[in-house]
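Researcher: Structure prediction, please.
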Amino acid sequence: MLRIAIPSNSGSNINFSTFEQYELPAPPDGVDAEINNDLILKFEDEEEAITYADQLENLSAGLKDKNTPQYIAISDIITAIRNDEFIQSYSR
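Model: Predicted structure follows.
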């Protein structure tokens, strides 16, 4: 199982609560919240995480207003996935 944390102090201030509020699609293995309300994305493996990031990129491309909190949150999630050390090792 691969777990990727999105800190709640990211550019969008996304956390578990706002993730649900924005009605963003969850990864196949779901999401969790840490005690400090940081968002935790759960994946079976790196390939599943990359596929999820690709899906979010398609979703963000369809948003008309690139300044909405949802768009910024999606961007933070994609960045966190792409910058994860396991994803980077897998992609090489």
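Model: Residues 1 and 56 are 20 Å apart (CA to CA).
Researcher: Thanks, that helps.
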